[in-house]
């Protein structure tokens, strides 16, 4: 029986639950958050995360304020962040904050910030 791999690096992608979005819209917003947060990461974090298989965890936040609080805590910890604002071309009004991307960063540091959130 093989052991599960140990992931030292990951991304946390957080979607708002108080904004009505279809499943596809949520997926698109999370994808934007993943790409943009990755773009803000340093070379070492990118390399380590890519070499481990790019672990991602998708979590829920109850409000825009919650996303901003998580973003502030992550920035204070030196974690790359990306707050996603929708263009408003399909389901929701322009400028709506929908998602937050954190990392890639060390799993243990992200867990301190996002450990109370539930999985999507």
TrEMBL record:
Enzyme class: hydrolase
E.C. number(s) listed in UniProt: 3.1.1.29
Gene Ontology molecular function, alphabetical: peptidyl-tRNA hydrolase activity
Catalytic activity: an N-acyl-L-alpha-aminoacyl-tRNA + H2O = an N-acyl-L-amino acid + a tRNA + H(+)
One GO CC term on file: cytosol
Alphabetically ordered keywords of this record: Hydrolase
Keyword Hydrolase set for record: yes
Pfam families in the cross-refs: PTH2
Role, per record: The natural substrate for this enzyme may be peptidyl-tRNAs which drop off the ribosome during protein synthesis.
Family recorded in the similarity comment: Belongs to the PTH2 family.
Descriptive protein name: Peptidyl-tRNA hydrolase
Source organism of this protein record: Methanofollis formosanus
């Amino acid at each position: 029986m093989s052991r599960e791999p140990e992931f030292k690096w990951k991304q946390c992608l957080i979607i708002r639950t108080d904004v009505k979005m279809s499943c596809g819209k949520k997926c698109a917003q999370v994808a934007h958050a993943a790409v943009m947060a990755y773009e803000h990461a340093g070379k070492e974090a990118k390399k380590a995360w890519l070499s481990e298989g790019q672990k991602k965890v998708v979590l829920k936040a109850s409000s825009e304020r919650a996303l901003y609080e998580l973003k502030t805590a992550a920035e204070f910890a030196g974690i790359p962040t990306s707050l996603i604002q929708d263009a408003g071309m399909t389901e929701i009004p322009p400028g709506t904050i929908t998602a937050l991307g954190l990392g890639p960063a060390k799993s243990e540091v992200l867990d301190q910030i996002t450990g109370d959130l539930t999985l999507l």
